[in-house]
Amino acid sequence: MSRYFLLDDSPSLPASLCWSAALDAPAPKSKRPVTVPERRCIVTRRSRPIASLLRFVVAPDGQIVLDLRRRLEGRGLWVCAQKDCVERAVRTRAFAKSAGRPVVVPSDLALRTESLLRQRLVQGLSLVRKAGHLVGGFDRVAALCASGKALLILVASDGTARARKRARDLGTGNGVPVEDRLAGEALTQVLGRNRITFAALAQGQAAQNWLGEWHGFRAFVSVTGCGKQGRHDGR
């Protein structure tokens, strides 16, 4: 795997993959209209705001790699930030056609991208914890929900059916959404305790920033048929 797949050692939020409107800052007072940068997806051939796209580049060894922070040198090859669109880019050889040269594209590029995005989520969640906006353990999560300050309940994806039901019931009873896309190992890694199955985000800017990352990840793994729009030949 190319070294360009490695995440930055010191990630910061908001990161380059922020899709959520929660991160939008107030528009500056100016008579000039605010221009949102756009790029064209090499699969759908549609122009979209760069916040809803992923940037890939051709590494020196010819391999296609994901540029999470959009800082790597080289021409950017932009793909809609959805898993099915990345998969279609691989199948249709859109990267080579857009780059105008032979490139090496891992057959599991979509899975690698999902793994990196998930890793980025875990790193971001650590920042939320440091900011004091993350609690772990069912009792603490329940107390946070009761206080009305919970933004999101996290239950381990590899938790038992009973655990997931408890989380859903707790969320339903308090009007708090529940997500189960992170494994218990990841939650335990962030909170630094014995096995963690339940966690929750409390109100705060760090948590709001992370939610932007989370919504982006959900959009990536969702099945939307993005790659079925427009032309798919990568030209």
What does this structure look like?
- It is elongated, with a radius of gyration of 19 Å.
- Helix 3 runs parallel beside helix 6 (184-191).
- The protein has a domain at 115-221: 60s Ribosomal Protein L30, Chain: A.
- The protein contains 7 helices and 9 strands.
- Helices cover 37% and strands 15% of the residues.
- The protein is an alpha+beta fold.
- A hairpin with a 6-residue loop joins strand 1 (38-40) and strand 2.
CATH A-level architecture of the domain at 115-221: 2-Layer Sandwich
Structural class: alpha+beta
CATH superfamily of the domain at 115-221: Ribosomal protein L30/S12
The CATH class of the domain at 115-221 is Alpha Beta
Give the count of helical stretches. 7
For the sheet with most strands, the description reads:
4 strands, mixed
Summarize the structure.
Helix content is 37%, strand content 15%. By secondary structure, the chain is of the alpha+beta class.
Topology:
Blueprint: E1 38-40, E2 47-49, E3 53-58, E4 64-66, E5 77-80, H1 83-91, H2 94-99, H3 109-130, E6 134-136, H4 138-147, E7 150-155, H5 161-174, E8 178-179, H6 184-191, E9 198-202, H7 205-221
Parallel strand pairs: 7-8
Antiparallel strand pairs: 1-2, 3-4, 3-5, 6-9, 7-9
